Amino acid sequence: MAEQMDLPRLRSLIEGVLITLYQRYRHQDFPELCERLHLPPPPPNNGPSKHERLKASLRACPDSRLAQVAEAILDSEPLVASERNVLQDVVWLGRHHVEIPGRTRRELAKRFDLTDHLVYPDRFLALLGQLWDLGDDVSDVWGPQSCTLRDDIERHVIRFPDDWSTEYLFEQLKAFEAPHPRFGRFLEGLASPAILPDEQAQRRFVELANHHLQPIGAQLRQEGEADGYPLFHLAQLGRGTARRPRNLIFATLGKPDIRFTSALDNDIEVAERADQVLVYDHAVGKDGLLWRDLLSWWQETRDITDPAEANRSLYGRMQASLPRQSPGQNNLFWLYHNIYKENLGDVPALLPEIWVHWDPRTIRERGARALQNLRMDFLMLLPGNRRVVLEVDGIQHYTRNGGAEPDSAKYAATMAGDRDLKLQGYEVFRFGHDELCDRDRARAVLTPFFHALLELPHA
Questions:
Q1: Do the beta carbons of residue 194 and residue 186 sit within 8 Å?
Q2: Are 66 and 39 in contact (CB under 8 A)?
Q3: How far apart are CA 117 and CA 182, in angstroms?
Q4: Does any domain span residue 2?
Q5: Model's pTM, two decimal places?
Q6: Which long-range contacts (CB under 8 A, 24 or more apart) does 88-92 make?
Q7: Are 270 and 398 in the same domain?
Q8: 241 in a structural domain
């Protein structure tokens, strides 16, 4: 789930960070700083103080861009742990996350033996320092003689591991009452090869964690590898698939001519008419495929430096793939981008004319063994490996002879294809064309649908 992001609080926290930043930078550094932090350009240096120039830049920043600004600050600016954590929590709570109740956390801690993790004490401490306030900043203020939580952990957990139980360590970290996203990232970190470079040890921890997570409908699920080690991410049970897509073939103007250049690695090539198909071949992360990811790929592959130009050309190329005789599909595509125009970079990309299955032969050639629903109207890749298919059904989906007669066989084949997709972990939503052929009516249907689907607040 995702809570509504507390934008007033986020703006206030960012302003607090900027108050400290203006002391580190000169007036002439502000344009580059604001660009790096995704803030609007500062006013000219013709009188206002450094503090006022940064505040003016923040005031000009729309709410829709605040999360991006906060993430840029977290990525590039050194913050004290308490300041870092509260900023992270506001951002993370507004993103998709899994809720883990306090009882589940405590029962897991009681059963959690730290032996495997303490084989790599520096890595373990690094994880704790990334997510929790270990008091290092207090030591900087009061001098090296001050005893910090990090000092206590080094003594009572690493040097003398029998001193503290895991449950007591979690209490000192304040892990039991931490926001859900922070605790979820803690579990992912404990299962990460960066912290635990031992696959058997990773799997022992994941087995323990999943024993406690599964009763609440969650699990640490393997999703890929890094340096030969498995990667695990926290996911909601019953949603999404266990795999991430390798090749996304979309916005096609005709059936693509595809061949494998490496069958072992699943590398494909569009052999002919490559200009009639788009193939997204970058990795899809645990946050799904966002518009900004798609836009970055488009700029890279088309060598477009201007983001505004890239936005226009990518949107236009995808729109060109939509069938002109389907106002419903065109309205759905236009309205999605219009509804989220203020924060388009942060929402999942809406991929039109997506090939879900592919067969070099036609359905007529394949006969009874043919795959149904080879190409779908739209696909969205959401956090948690959720794959969402959207279909706009015109009269041709359940009639023959130009709509003159009902065709139960055609309807049955469509439903069979839907069942196959759902069994593979896809979520399939169908709209009647009549719902969407009028733009005003379509907006009334699609706005609450997309807000509910993306777990975002109503505008």
A1: no
A2: no
A3: 19
A4: no
A5: 0.68
A6: 88/182, 89/179, 89/181, 89/182, 90/5, 90/6, 90/9, 90/10, 90/13, 91/5, 91/10, 91/67, 92/179, 92/181, 92/182, 92/185
A7: yes
A8: no
- What are the tokens at 164? 């503290």
Q: Tokens standing for 392? A: 């706009």
Predicted confidence (pLDDT) per residue in 270-313, tens digit: 766 677 889 898 888 778 899 999 999 999 999 998 989 999 99
Domain-terminating residue out of 68, 93, 118: 93
Task: Output the CA–CA distances (angstroms, integers) from residue 28 to 24, 41, 44, 211, in the order listed.
Answer: 12, 12, 10, 56
CA 95 to centroid of chain Cα atoms:
8
The single-letter DSSP state of residue 54 is H
Single residue among 93, 127, 158 that ends a domain in this structure: 93
Provide the angle, in degrees to the nearest 10, between the axes of the packed helices 50-59 and 7-21: 160
- pLDDT tens for each residue of 126-162: 999 999 999 987 545 445 556 899 999 999 999 999 9
Determine the Cα angle at 65 with ends 61 and 69, to 5°: 90
Domain of residue 76: give its range: 7-93
Q: Is 23 a member of any domain?
A: yes
Do the Cβ atoms of 186 and 117 come closer than 8 Å?
no
Same-domain status, 404 and 322: yes
C-alpha distances in angstroms, 86 versus 92, 137, 287?
A: 10, 15, 21
Do 277 and 425 have their domain in common?
yes
Q: How many domains does the chain have?
A: 3
In a domain, 284, yes or no: yes
Residues 225 and 285 in one domain: no
Taken as a whole, the chain contains a residue count of 459
